[in-house]
Amino acid sequence: MKEIRIYSLHPKVYDVKSLLSCYRLEAIADGFAFIWEEEDPDYLIVGEHIYTDAKLKKRFNQLWSERRVLIFYTQEAMKPDLNIFDYGVAFDTGFQCDGRIIRLPPPKDMYHNFYLPERACPQNMAEAKAILAGKTGFCNFMYSHPAAKRDEIFHAIGTYKKVDSLGKHLHNTHHQATGFVGHYKETTLLRLPYKFTIAAENAQYNGYTSEKLMTALQANTVPVYWGNPLIFQDYNESAFINANAFGSLGALVQKIRQLDESDELWCEMVCRPWQTKEQLLSEEKRINDYRDFFIRLFSMDVSAAKRTEKGLYISFYGKWFEHSRPKPLYKRAIRKIKTIVHERKKT
Question: Residue 161: which domain range?
């Protein structure tokens, strides 16, 4: 069995077990002997956190070596930098770059820790009407941080009826989710009383679909989704309101109002399957392609797996990247305070 000496720079990865879980590699674990190696790994998996965390960036600079296989893994809306990394795992669709890029697993696999397999859409109108009878709230919004478009959607829908913000951001109700809002099974359970959910990503980016739509559907609400322009490829567009498709917020609110005022229309939408048969088959293929990607990668000799190019400007770029470390927040704050004090002294 081939030994895989591996390390990862990610806030939630600290040993082999957490690595296999975080990167959804349990299914291939029996085929390789994974060894957690902090000082001299052959494979280094790096999260997007190196762009925001000075300690992780410094550690990456220390481990960066031409003889290591560098894999960039992001669960955010961004493309891997193939000038630096040999491989990338991201949300992008159709961006393979000669086998160096693989798309992340689908949400119910990638966000397995808050997927509730026992929940499904109603099978008929009678079930949907029974669910509707138990709904006591209009629409919920559950986020920790601001993002321009989803905040706009929140305020626009609020001109029709109050939207309950259950998270830290724009909080306006007596109940508040605990923990890091948007990332636990709690998000589905808190949405159960509501007819609608604002399920908006933090970016509009092809292929970028997080857990937000999935948890809203599992709560048997009608999701108001904004984000991935290609969402219709992965989920049944007739089962939710695709805000991407509306020319104005006014038209979007009018659609929500139409469903809110008609029990029949609301129940019809909630009954629709979340994914078509074709989408489910595509999802299964996506999972298999992801696993096959890592099996091929780990089966190669380390030297053969290296894919970054060498050259004059590549080396210039590498040196620039190495020295462009993010400054810690406290240093930015001190610099800002010094600027303010300096300006006041001048006046």
Answer: 122-273
With residue 102 as reference, give the H or E element that holds it. strand 101-103
DSSP-derived letter for residue 105 is P
* Three-state DSSP class for residue 321: helix
| Cα 341 off chain centre by | 40
Same domain assignment for residues 135 and 243: yes
Residue 102, strand partner residues: 89
In the numeric block, the tokens 């909080």 are attached to 171
For the domain that residue 170 is a member of, what is the CATH number?
A: 3.40.50.11660
Please give the backbone phi and psi of residue 231, each rounded to the nearest 5 degrees, phi first.
-60, -30
Q: Where are the alpha helices (DSSP H) in 212-310?
A: 212-218, 249-261, 263-271, 277-299, 302-305
CA 200 – CA 141 distance, rounded (Å):
9
* Beta bridge partner(s), residue 72: 46, 88
**Can you give the length of the chain in residues?**
347
Residue range 231-276, pLDDT digits in tens? 999 999 999 999 999 999 999 999 999 999 999 999 999 999 999 9
Q: What is the pTM of this model?
A: 0.87
